[in-house]
Specification:
Blueprint lengths: L1 H16 L8 H8 L5 H26 L2 H20 L3 H29 L2 H32 L4 H4 L1 H15 L5 E3 L5 H20 L9 H23 L13 H21 L2 H9 L3 H6 L2 H21 L4 H18 L7 H16 L4 H9 L5 H38 L16 H6 L2 H33 L18 E3 L2 H8 L37
Parallel strand pairs: 1-2
Helix pairs in contact: 1-5, 1-6, 1-8, 3-5, 3-9, 3-18, 4-5, 4-8, 5-18, 6-14, 6-17, 9-10, 9-18, 11-17, 11-18, 11-20, 12-20, 14-16, 15-16, 15-20, 17-18, 18-20
Length: about 550
Amino acid sequence: MGWIFASLMLVMLLAALDQTIVGTALPTIVGELHGLEHMSWTITAYTLALTIAMPVYGKLGDLVGRKNLFLLAIALFILGSALCGFAQGMVEFVLFRGLQGLGGAGLMIMSQTIIADVVPAKDRAKFMAPMGAVFGVSSVAGPLIGGWLTDSVDWRWVFWINLPLGVAALAVSALTIHLPKRKNTARIDYAGMVVLALALTGVVLVASWGGTEHEWGSPVIVGLAAASAVLAVAFVLIERRASEPVLPMRLFRNRTFVVTTLLGLVVGAGMMGALAYLPTYLQMAYGVDATESGLLLLPMVMTLLVTSIGSGAVVTRTGRYKALPVVGTLVAALGMFLMSTLTLATPLWLLCVHVAVLGAGLGLFMQIIVLAVQNAVHPREIGTATSSNNLFRELGVTVGVAVLGTVFTGRLTERLGALLPGGAVAGGHGTSSLTPEVVRSLPADVADGVVNAYADSLTPIFLWLVPMFLVGTVIALFLPEVPLASTTAVGEGEAEVLGEHAAAAATAPAPAPTGQVPAQAGAPGTGTAPGTGTATGTAPEPRA
Protein backbone atom coordinates (compact mmCIF):
# COMPACT_ATOMS: atom_id res chain seq x y z
CA MET A 1 0.00 0.00 0.00
CA GLY A 2 2.90 2.35 0.71
CA TRP A 3 4.15 2.29 -2.88
CA ILE A 4 0.63 2.79 -4.24
CA PHE A 5 0.03 5.77 -2.00
CA ALA A 6 3.42 7.28 -2.89
CA SER A 7 2.70 7.05 -6.61
CA LEU A 8 -0.79 8.54 -6.18
CA MET A 9 0.58 11.45 -4.14
CA LEU A 10 3.29 12.07 -6.72
CA VAL A 11 1.02 12.20 -9.74
CA MET A 12 -1.53 14.40 -7.96
CA LEU A 13 1.27 16.80 -7.02
CA LEU A 14 2.46 16.90 -10.64
CA ALA A 15 -1.04 17.69 -11.92
CA ALA A 16 -1.70 20.35 -9.28
CA LEU A 17 1.71 21.98 -9.74
CA ASP A 18 1.19 22.46 -13.45
CA GLN A 19 -1.72 24.79 -12.71
CA THR A 20 0.63 27.20 -10.92
CA ILE A 21 4.24 26.48 -11.88
CA VAL A 22 4.02 28.08 -15.32
CA GLY A 23 2.95 31.53 -14.09
CA THR A 24 6.40 32.80 -13.07
CA ALA A 25 7.96 31.43 -16.27
CA LEU A 26 5.38 32.97 -18.61
CA PRO A 27 7.17 36.27 -19.36
CA THR A 28 10.26 34.34 -20.44
CA ILE A 29 8.29 31.75 -22.41
CA VAL A 30 6.23 34.24 -24.43
CA GLY A 31 9.29 36.35 -25.07
CA GLU A 32 11.34 33.45 -26.42
CA LEU A 33 8.47 31.98 -28.44
CA HIS A 34 7.34 35.40 -29.72
CA GLY A 35 3.72 34.95 -28.67
CA LEU A 36 2.68 37.73 -26.34
CA GLU A 37 -0.76 37.89 -27.95
CA HIS A 38 -1.38 34.25 -26.98
CA MET A 39 -0.11 34.58 -23.39
CA SER A 40 -3.47 34.06 -21.69
CA TRP A 41 -4.04 30.84 -23.62
CA THR A 42 -1.08 29.15 -21.94
CA ILE A 43 -3.11 29.05 -18.71
CA THR A 44 -6.55 28.76 -20.31
CA ALA A 45 -5.61 25.73 -22.44
CA TYR A 46 -4.53 23.69 -19.42
CA THR A 47 -7.46 24.76 -17.25
CA LEU A 48 -9.98 24.15 -20.03
CA ALA A 49 -8.69 20.66 -20.86
CA LEU A 50 -8.52 19.77 -17.17
CA THR A 51 -12.09 20.93 -16.51
CA ILE A 52 -13.58 19.18 -19.55
CA ALA A 53 -11.81 15.87 -18.94
CA MET A 54 -12.54 15.51 -15.20
CA PRO A 55 -16.14 14.20 -15.47
CA VAL A 56 -15.20 11.97 -18.40
CA TYR A 57 -12.46 10.24 -16.40
CA GLY A 58 -14.78 9.85 -13.43
CA LYS A 59 -17.58 8.22 -15.40
CA LEU A 60 -15.38 5.98 -17.54
CA GLY A 61 -13.52 4.85 -14.43
CA ASP A 62 -16.81 3.71 -12.92
CA LEU A 63 -17.77 1.89 -16.11
CA VAL A 64 -14.56 0.27 -17.40
CA GLY A 65 -12.18 0.36 -14.43
CA ARG A 66 -9.55 2.84 -13.31
CA LYS A 67 -6.07 1.35 -13.65
CA ASN A 68 -5.72 1.55 -17.44
CA LEU A 69 -7.26 5.02 -17.49
CA PHE A 70 -4.80 6.08 -14.79
CA LEU A 71 -1.83 4.76 -16.76
CA LEU A 72 -3.15 6.48 -19.90
CA ALA A 73 -3.48 9.77 -18.02
CA ILE A 74 0.12 9.53 -16.75
CA ALA A 75 1.33 8.79 -20.28
CA LEU A 76 -0.59 11.78 -21.72
CA PHE A 77 0.81 14.04 -19.01
CA ILE A 78 4.38 12.89 -19.64
CA LEU A 79 3.97 13.32 -23.41
CA GLY A 80 2.44 16.78 -23.02
CA SER A 81 5.23 17.84 -20.65
CA ALA A 82 7.95 16.66 -23.02
CA LEU A 83 6.37 18.40 -26.02
CA CYS A 84 5.91 21.66 -24.08
CA GLY A 85 9.62 21.66 -23.33
CA PHE A 86 10.48 21.15 -27.01
CA ALA A 87 7.95 23.72 -28.32
CA GLN A 88 9.37 26.17 -30.86
CA GLY A 89 6.29 28.34 -31.34
CA MET A 90 3.47 29.71 -29.23
CA VAL A 91 0.60 27.97 -31.03
CA GLU A 92 2.11 24.51 -30.62
CA PHE A 93 3.00 25.33 -27.00
CA VAL A 94 -0.65 26.14 -26.26
CA LEU A 95 -1.77 22.89 -27.92
CA PHE A 96 0.73 20.87 -25.89
CA ARG A 97 -0.49 22.57 -22.70
CA GLY A 98 -3.98 21.32 -23.57
CA LEU A 99 -2.60 17.79 -23.94
CA GLN A 100 -0.99 18.17 -20.52
CA GLY A 101 -4.34 19.20 -19.09
CA LEU A 102 -6.05 16.11 -20.50
CA GLY A 103 -3.54 13.98 -18.64
CA GLY A 104 -3.62 16.12 -15.50
CA ALA A 105 -7.39 15.65 -15.11
CA GLY A 106 -6.94 11.89 -15.03
CA LEU A 107 -4.14 12.14 -12.47
CA MET A 108 -6.31 14.13 -10.07
CA ILE A 109 -9.51 12.11 -10.39
CA MET A 110 -7.96 8.64 -10.59
CA SER A 111 -5.72 9.31 -7.57
CA GLN A 112 -8.73 10.12 -5.39
CA THR A 113 -10.89 7.27 -6.65
CA ILE A 114 -8.26 4.53 -6.63
CA ILE A 115 -7.82 5.21 -2.91
CA ALA A 116 -11.56 4.58 -2.54
CA ASP A 117 -11.16 1.22 -4.29
CA VAL A 118 -8.46 -0.08 -1.97
CA VAL A 119 -9.04 1.65 1.41
CA PRO A 120 -12.28 1.54 3.46
CA ALA A 121 -13.89 4.92 4.18
CA LYS A 122 -13.25 4.65 7.93
CA ASP A 123 -9.48 4.43 7.24
CA ARG A 124 -9.40 6.54 4.08
CA ALA A 125 -9.22 9.95 5.78
CA LYS A 126 -5.60 9.49 6.89
CA PHE A 127 -4.66 8.87 3.24
CA MET A 128 -6.88 11.46 1.59
CA ALA A 129 -6.06 14.35 3.93
CA PRO A 130 -2.40 14.55 2.78
CA MET A 131 -3.61 14.25 -0.83
CA GLY A 132 -5.88 17.23 -0.27
CA ALA A 133 -2.96 19.19 1.15
CA VAL A 134 -1.27 18.81 -2.23
CA PHE A 135 -3.48 21.56 -3.66
CA GLY A 136 -2.36 24.02 -1.01
CA VAL A 137 1.28 23.01 -1.39
CA SER A 138 1.13 23.44 -5.17
CA SER A 139 -0.30 26.95 -4.90
CA VAL A 140 2.88 28.01 -3.10
CA ALA A 141 5.49 25.59 -4.42
CA GLY A 142 4.49 26.07 -8.07
CA PRO A 143 5.51 29.72 -8.43
CA LEU A 144 8.57 29.09 -6.23
CA ILE A 145 9.87 26.18 -8.34
CA GLY A 146 8.89 27.81 -11.62
CA GLY A 147 10.72 31.01 -10.76
CA TRP A 148 13.87 29.20 -9.64
CA LEU A 149 14.04 26.96 -12.73
CA THR A 150 13.46 29.90 -15.06
CA ASP A 151 16.08 32.09 -13.38
CA SER A 152 18.72 29.45 -12.65
CA VAL A 153 18.34 26.75 -15.33
CA ASP A 154 15.96 27.15 -18.29
CA TRP A 155 12.20 27.59 -18.57
CA ARG A 156 11.93 24.32 -20.50
CA TRP A 157 12.85 22.43 -17.32
CA VAL A 158 9.60 23.65 -15.79
CA PHE A 159 8.10 20.90 -17.97
CA TRP A 160 10.96 18.43 -18.29
CA ILE A 161 11.15 18.04 -14.51
CA ASN A 162 7.91 16.08 -14.84
CA LEU A 163 9.49 13.39 -17.02
CA PRO A 164 11.59 11.37 -14.53
CA LEU A 165 8.95 11.74 -11.83
CA GLY A 166 6.15 10.78 -14.21
CA VAL A 167 8.00 7.75 -15.58
CA ALA A 168 8.71 6.56 -12.04
CA ALA A 169 5.04 6.97 -11.09
CA LEU A 170 3.98 5.14 -14.26
CA ALA A 171 6.23 2.16 -13.50
CA VAL A 172 5.23 1.93 -9.83
CA SER A 173 1.53 2.24 -10.66
CA ALA A 174 1.68 -0.40 -13.38
CA LEU A 175 3.42 -2.88 -11.06
CA THR A 176 1.70 -2.27 -7.73
CA ILE A 177 -1.90 -1.22 -8.40
CA HIS A 178 -4.24 -4.20 -8.75
CA LEU A 179 -7.92 -3.40 -9.17
CA PRO A 180 -10.92 -5.52 -10.16
CA LYS A 181 -11.69 -5.65 -13.87
CA ARG A 182 -14.98 -4.22 -15.03
CA LYS A 183 -16.93 -5.30 -18.03
CA ASN A 184 -19.05 -2.50 -19.40
CA THR A 185 -22.21 -3.34 -21.33
CA ALA A 186 -23.79 0.08 -20.89
CA ARG A 187 -24.16 2.71 -23.59
CA ILE A 188 -21.58 5.44 -22.97
CA ASP A 189 -23.10 8.91 -22.79
CA TYR A 190 -21.19 10.48 -25.68
CA ALA A 191 -23.84 13.15 -26.28
CA GLY A 192 -23.71 14.24 -22.65
CA MET A 193 -19.91 14.38 -22.70
CA VAL A 194 -19.83 16.56 -25.83
CA VAL A 195 -22.52 18.99 -24.65
CA LEU A 196 -20.94 19.23 -21.17
CA ALA A 197 -17.54 19.93 -22.76
CA LEU A 198 -19.02 22.75 -24.86
CA ALA A 199 -20.84 24.26 -21.88
CA LEU A 200 -17.72 24.13 -19.70
CA THR A 201 -15.67 25.67 -22.51
CA GLY A 202 -18.02 28.64 -22.54
CA VAL A 203 -17.87 29.07 -18.75
CA VAL A 204 -14.06 28.87 -18.62
CA LEU A 205 -13.66 31.30 -21.52
CA VAL A 206 -16.06 33.78 -19.95
CA ALA A 207 -14.10 33.61 -16.69
CA SER A 208 -10.72 33.81 -18.44
CA TRP A 209 -11.52 36.51 -21.01
CA GLY A 210 -14.00 38.66 -19.10
CA GLY A 211 -12.42 41.96 -18.09
CA THR A 212 -9.10 41.06 -19.76
CA GLU A 213 -9.35 40.04 -23.41
CA HIS A 214 -12.86 41.50 -23.70
CA GLU A 215 -15.07 43.77 -21.63
CA TRP A 216 -17.63 41.99 -19.45
CA GLY A 217 -20.47 43.53 -21.44
CA SER A 218 -18.94 42.87 -24.86
CA PRO A 219 -20.83 40.77 -27.46
CA VAL A 220 -18.22 38.01 -27.17
CA ILE A 221 -18.61 37.57 -23.40
CA VAL A 222 -22.39 37.97 -23.42
CA GLY A 223 -22.68 35.54 -26.34
CA LEU A 224 -20.47 32.95 -24.64
CA ALA A 225 -22.46 33.26 -21.41
CA ALA A 226 -25.78 32.85 -23.24
CA ALA A 227 -24.50 29.86 -25.21
CA SER A 228 -23.22 28.22 -22.02
CA ALA A 229 -26.62 28.66 -20.36
CA VAL A 230 -28.43 27.11 -23.35
CA LEU A 231 -25.96 24.22 -23.45
CA ALA A 232 -26.38 23.66 -19.69
CA VAL A 233 -30.15 23.28 -20.15
CA ALA A 234 -29.59 20.91 -23.09
CA PHE A 235 -27.14 18.90 -20.97
CA VAL A 236 -29.70 18.43 -18.19
CA LEU A 237 -32.28 17.21 -20.70
CA ILE A 238 -29.81 14.74 -22.20
CA GLU A 239 -28.75 13.42 -18.80
CA ARG A 240 -32.33 12.79 -17.74
CA ARG A 241 -32.73 10.39 -20.67
CA ALA A 242 -29.31 8.70 -20.68
CA SER A 243 -29.02 5.19 -19.25
CA GLU A 244 -25.52 5.91 -17.84
CA PRO A 245 -25.29 9.73 -17.65
CA VAL A 246 -21.87 11.32 -17.26
CA LEU A 247 -23.32 13.49 -14.48
CA PRO A 248 -26.46 11.81 -13.10
CA MET A 249 -29.12 14.27 -12.01
CA ARG A 250 -29.95 11.96 -9.11
CA LEU A 251 -26.70 13.06 -7.46
CA PHE A 252 -28.34 16.42 -6.84
CA ARG A 253 -30.93 14.66 -4.68
CA ASN A 254 -28.10 13.49 -2.43
CA ARG A 255 -27.73 16.06 0.35
CA THR A 256 -24.10 15.21 1.06
CA PHE A 257 -23.16 15.68 -2.60
CA VAL A 258 -24.97 19.00 -2.86
CA VAL A 259 -23.53 20.40 0.38
CA THR A 260 -19.93 19.36 -0.32
CA THR A 261 -20.11 20.55 -3.92
CA LEU A 262 -21.36 23.99 -2.89
CA LEU A 263 -18.72 24.12 -0.17
CA GLY A 264 -15.91 23.23 -2.58
CA LEU A 265 -17.10 25.81 -5.11
CA VAL A 266 -17.32 28.65 -2.56
CA VAL A 267 -14.09 27.89 -0.74
CA GLY A 268 -12.17 27.17 -3.96
CA ALA A 269 -13.11 30.59 -5.31
CA GLY A 270 -12.12 32.34 -2.10
CA MET A 271 -8.86 30.49 -1.52
CA MET A 272 -7.33 30.77 -4.98
CA GLY A 273 -8.77 34.23 -5.56
CA ALA A 274 -6.71 35.45 -2.62
CA LEU A 275 -3.55 33.40 -3.09
CA ALA A 276 -3.24 34.25 -6.79
CA TYR A 277 -2.32 37.86 -5.98
CA LEU A 278 -0.57 37.56 -2.62
CA PRO A 279 2.92 36.86 -4.10
CA THR A 280 2.64 40.04 -6.21
CA TYR A 281 1.73 42.01 -3.10
CA LEU A 282 4.73 40.63 -1.25
CA GLN A 283 7.09 41.54 -4.08
CA MET A 284 5.70 45.06 -4.39
CA ALA A 285 5.14 45.91 -0.72
CA TYR A 286 8.24 44.29 0.76
CA GLY A 287 10.64 44.41 -2.18
CA VAL A 288 11.32 40.64 -2.15
CA ASP A 289 12.00 38.65 -5.31
CA ALA A 290 9.80 35.89 -6.74
CA THR A 291 11.63 33.12 -4.90
CA GLU A 292 11.47 34.91 -1.55
CA SER A 293 7.76 35.65 -1.97
CA GLY A 294 7.17 31.92 -2.35
CA LEU A 295 9.25 31.15 0.73
CA LEU A 296 7.19 33.63 2.77
CA LEU A 297 4.11 31.51 2.10
CA LEU A 298 5.71 28.35 3.50
CA PRO A 299 4.08 28.88 6.94
CA MET A 300 0.72 28.42 5.23
CA VAL A 301 1.94 25.20 3.63
CA MET A 302 3.22 23.87 6.94
CA THR A 303 0.01 24.54 8.88
CA LEU A 304 -2.06 23.18 6.00
CA LEU A 305 -0.06 19.95 6.06
CA VAL A 306 -0.27 19.63 9.84
CA THR A 307 -4.02 20.19 10.06
CA SER A 308 -4.68 17.99 7.01
CA ILE A 309 -2.86 15.06 8.55
CA GLY A 310 -4.38 15.80 11.96
CA SER A 311 -7.92 15.95 10.57
CA GLY A 312 -7.38 12.61 8.84
CA ALA A 313 -6.23 11.06 12.11
CA VAL A 314 -9.28 12.44 13.94
CA VAL A 315 -11.71 11.05 11.37
CA THR A 316 -9.98 7.66 11.39
CA ARG A 317 -10.13 7.47 15.18
CA THR A 318 -13.65 8.81 15.73
CA GLY A 319 -15.45 8.11 12.46
CA ARG A 320 -16.93 11.62 12.58
CA TYR A 321 -16.17 14.45 10.19
CA LYS A 322 -18.95 17.06 10.15
CA ALA A 323 -17.31 19.40 12.68
CA LEU A 324 -14.13 19.73 10.61
CA PRO A 325 -15.60 21.76 7.70
CA VAL A 326 -17.50 23.95 10.16
CA VAL A 327 -14.42 24.74 12.26
CA GLY A 328 -12.13 24.88 9.22
CA THR A 329 -14.15 27.51 7.37
CA LEU A 330 -14.36 29.63 10.52
CA VAL A 331 -10.58 29.48 11.00
CA ALA A 332 -10.04 30.28 7.30
CA ALA A 333 -12.40 33.26 7.60
CA LEU A 334 -10.34 34.46 10.58
CA GLY A 335 -7.15 34.09 8.54
CA MET A 336 -8.65 36.07 5.66
CA PHE A 337 -9.75 38.80 8.07
CA LEU A 338 -6.25 39.01 9.54
CA MET A 339 -4.82 39.33 6.03
CA SER A 340 -7.20 42.23 5.37
CA THR A 341 -5.47 44.15 8.18
CA LEU A 342 -2.11 44.10 6.40
CA THR A 343 -0.43 47.46 5.92
CA LEU A 344 2.95 48.49 4.60
CA ALA A 345 4.07 48.72 8.24
CA THR A 346 3.11 45.10 9.03
CA PRO A 347 6.27 43.11 9.87
CA LEU A 348 6.93 40.04 7.76
CA TRP A 349 6.73 37.68 10.74
CA LEU A 350 3.18 38.84 11.47
CA LEU A 351 2.18 38.41 7.83
CA CYS A 352 3.49 34.84 8.01
CA VAL A 353 1.31 34.25 11.09
CA HIS A 354 -1.76 35.49 9.23
CA VAL A 355 -1.23 33.20 6.22
CA ALA A 356 -0.48 30.32 8.60
CA VAL A 357 -3.94 30.76 10.16
CA LEU A 358 -5.50 30.60 6.71
CA GLY A 359 -3.58 27.42 5.90
CA ALA A 360 -4.63 25.81 9.18
CA GLY A 361 -8.29 26.41 8.38
CA LEU A 362 -8.06 25.06 4.83
CA GLY A 363 -6.22 21.94 5.90
CA LEU A 364 -8.97 20.94 8.30
CA PHE A 365 -11.49 20.15 5.61
CA MET A 366 -10.32 20.42 1.98
CA GLN A 367 -10.06 16.68 1.42
CA ILE A 368 -12.52 15.64 4.09
CA ILE A 369 -15.36 16.88 1.85
CA VAL A 370 -14.22 14.46 -0.88
CA LEU A 371 -14.26 11.61 1.64
CA ALA A 372 -17.81 12.59 2.64
CA VAL A 373 -18.95 12.50 -0.99
CA GLN A 374 -17.41 9.10 -1.66
CA ASN A 375 -18.93 7.64 1.49
CA ALA A 376 -22.44 8.88 0.70
CA VAL A 377 -22.90 7.58 -2.86
CA HIS A 378 -23.31 4.15 -4.38
CA PRO A 379 -19.91 2.46 -4.90
CA ARG A 380 -20.54 2.27 -8.66
CA GLU A 381 -20.72 6.07 -8.74
CA ILE A 382 -17.69 6.97 -6.63
CA GLY A 383 -15.71 8.11 -9.67
CA THR A 384 -18.62 10.11 -11.05
CA ALA A 385 -19.32 11.82 -7.71
CA THR A 386 -15.64 12.54 -7.03
CA SER A 387 -15.01 14.02 -10.47
CA SER A 388 -18.19 16.12 -10.28
CA ASN A 389 -17.15 17.50 -6.88
CA ASN A 390 -13.71 18.37 -8.26
CA LEU A 391 -15.29 19.87 -11.37
CA PHE A 392 -17.32 22.40 -9.41
CA ARG A 393 -14.35 23.24 -7.20
CA GLU A 394 -12.26 23.86 -10.33
CA LEU A 395 -14.99 26.10 -11.72
CA GLY A 396 -15.02 27.99 -8.42
CA VAL A 397 -11.25 28.48 -8.63
CA THR A 398 -11.46 29.67 -12.25
CA VAL A 399 -14.32 32.08 -11.65
CA GLY A 400 -12.89 33.32 -8.34
CA VAL A 401 -9.48 34.13 -9.81
CA ALA A 402 -11.10 35.84 -12.81
CA VAL A 403 -13.57 37.98 -10.87
CA LEU A 404 -11.19 39.02 -8.10
CA GLY A 405 -8.48 39.63 -10.70
CA THR A 406 -10.78 41.98 -12.55
CA VAL A 407 -11.64 43.85 -9.34
CA PHE A 408 -7.98 44.07 -8.30
CA THR A 409 -6.83 45.23 -11.74
CA GLY A 410 -9.61 47.80 -11.95
CA ARG A 411 -8.79 49.28 -8.55
CA LEU A 412 -5.07 49.26 -9.29
CA THR A 413 -5.46 50.89 -12.70
CA GLU A 414 -7.62 53.63 -11.21
CA ARG A 415 -5.07 54.43 -8.51
CA LEU A 416 -2.08 54.27 -10.82
CA GLY A 417 -3.90 56.43 -13.33
CA ALA A 418 -4.28 59.13 -10.69
CA LEU A 419 -0.68 58.70 -9.56
CA LEU A 420 0.93 58.58 -13.02
CA PRO A 421 -1.14 60.74 -15.37
CA GLY A 422 -0.24 61.39 -18.95
CA GLY A 423 -0.48 57.87 -20.36
CA ALA A 424 1.76 56.00 -17.94
CA VAL A 425 -0.95 53.33 -17.69
CA ALA A 426 -2.59 54.01 -21.01
CA GLY A 427 -5.37 51.73 -22.09
CA GLY A 428 -5.70 50.23 -18.65
CA HIS A 429 -3.03 47.66 -19.48
CA GLY A 430 0.12 49.54 -18.54
CA THR A 431 0.06 48.17 -15.01
CA SER A 432 1.47 44.90 -16.34
CA SER A 433 4.72 46.69 -17.20
CA LEU A 434 5.24 47.82 -13.61
CA THR A 435 7.26 44.84 -12.44
CA PRO A 436 8.94 44.94 -9.00
CA GLU A 437 12.25 45.70 -10.73
CA VAL A 438 10.74 48.62 -12.61
CA VAL A 439 9.15 49.99 -9.43
CA ARG A 440 12.45 49.87 -7.57
CA SER A 441 14.04 51.91 -10.36
CA LEU A 442 11.47 54.72 -10.08
CA PRO A 443 12.05 57.89 -8.03
CA ALA A 444 11.38 57.26 -4.35
CA ASP A 445 8.16 59.26 -4.13
CA VAL A 446 6.72 57.63 -7.26
CA ALA A 447 7.76 54.14 -6.12
CA ASP A 448 6.10 54.70 -2.74
CA GLY A 449 2.92 55.75 -4.51
CA VAL A 450 2.90 52.62 -6.66
CA VAL A 451 3.43 50.38 -3.63
CA ASN A 452 0.63 52.13 -1.77
CA ALA A 453 -1.63 51.66 -4.80
CA TYR A 454 -0.98 47.90 -4.76
CA ALA A 455 -1.66 47.68 -1.04
CA ASP A 456 -4.84 49.76 -1.22
CA SER A 457 -6.08 47.67 -4.15
CA LEU A 458 -5.51 44.21 -2.68
CA THR A 459 -6.06 44.22 1.08
CA PRO A 460 -9.77 45.22 0.92
CA ILE A 461 -10.35 42.19 -1.30
CA PHE A 462 -9.26 39.93 1.57
CA LEU A 463 -11.96 41.50 3.73
CA TRP A 464 -14.59 40.93 1.04
CA LEU A 465 -13.67 37.22 1.06
CA VAL A 466 -14.46 36.82 4.76
CA PRO A 467 -18.25 36.57 4.12
CA MET A 468 -17.55 33.96 1.44
CA PHE A 469 -15.88 31.68 3.97
CA LEU A 470 -18.64 32.36 6.48
CA VAL A 471 -21.16 31.29 3.84
CA GLY A 472 -19.09 28.12 3.64
CA THR A 473 -19.57 27.69 7.40
CA VAL A 474 -23.34 27.93 7.02
CA ILE A 475 -23.27 25.42 4.15
CA ALA A 476 -21.14 23.02 6.24
CA LEU A 477 -23.75 23.05 9.01
CA PHE A 478 -26.11 21.20 6.65
CA LEU A 479 -23.60 18.38 5.97
CA PRO A 480 -25.07 15.02 7.07
CA GLU A 481 -22.94 12.80 9.32
CA VAL A 482 -23.07 9.52 7.37
CA PRO A 483 -21.44 6.53 9.15
CA LEU A 484 -18.16 5.67 7.45
CA ALA A 485 -17.99 2.34 5.61
CA SER A 486 -15.64 -0.34 6.89
CA THR A 487 -15.26 -2.08 3.52
CA THR A 488 -13.73 -0.93 0.26
CA ALA A 489 -15.88 0.37 -2.57
CA VAL A 490 -15.45 -2.78 -4.64
CA GLY A 491 -14.34 -6.22 -3.69
CA GLU A 492 -11.81 -8.40 -5.41
CA GLY A 493 -12.96 -10.12 -8.56
CA GLU A 494 -14.77 -8.93 -11.64
CA ALA A 495 -17.37 -6.17 -11.33
CA GLU A 496 -19.89 -5.93 -14.14
CA VAL A 497 -21.81 -2.79 -14.99
CA LEU A 498 -25.15 -3.61 -16.55
CA GLY A 499 -26.33 -0.35 -18.05
CA GLU A 500 -29.86 0.44 -16.97
CA HIS A 501 -29.67 -2.23 -14.28
CA ALA A 502 -26.70 -0.41 -12.74
CA ALA A 503 -28.56 2.88 -12.86
CA ALA A 504 -31.56 1.29 -11.21
CA ALA A 505 -29.37 -0.28 -8.54
CA ALA A 506 -27.82 3.09 -7.81
CA THR A 507 -31.18 4.54 -6.86
CA ALA A 508 -32.66 1.46 -5.20
CA PRO A 509 -32.64 1.31 -1.40
CA ALA A 510 -29.78 -0.76 -0.06
CA PRO A 511 -30.32 -3.61 2.36
CA ALA A 512 -29.68 -2.29 5.85
CA PRO A 513 -26.53 -3.30 7.68
CA THR A 514 -26.90 -4.73 11.12
CA GLY A 515 -28.24 -2.19 13.56
CA GLN A 516 -29.41 0.33 10.95
CA VAL A 517 -32.86 1.15 9.71
CA PRO A 518 -33.29 0.55 5.96
CA ALA A 519 -34.03 3.53 3.74
CA GLN A 520 -37.67 3.70 2.74
CA ALA A 521 -38.41 2.81 -0.83
CA GLY A 522 -39.83 5.53 -2.98
CA ALA A 523 -38.19 8.37 -1.05
CA PRO A 524 -34.88 9.00 -2.84
CA GLY A 525 -34.99 12.73 -2.27
CA THR A 526 -35.46 12.77 1.47
CA GLY A 527 -31.77 13.21 2.20
CA THR A 528 -31.70 10.81 5.18
CA ALA A 529 -33.09 7.43 6.01
CA PRO A 530 -35.32 7.44 9.04
CA GLY A 531 -33.31 7.17 12.21
CA THR A 532 -29.90 6.84 10.58
CA GLY A 533 -28.86 10.07 8.88
CA THR A 534 -27.64 8.04 5.92
CA ALA A 535 -27.91 9.97 2.66
CA THR A 536 -30.24 8.55 0.06
CA GLY A 537 -30.89 9.44 -3.53
CA THR A 538 -27.74 7.49 -4.48
CA ALA A 539 -28.08 4.86 -1.81
CA PRO A 540 -24.89 3.27 -0.51
CA GLU A 541 -24.33 -0.45 -0.75
CA PRO A 542 -24.52 -2.50 2.42
CA ARG A 543 -21.68 -1.59 4.74
CA ALA A 544 -19.81 -4.20 6.71
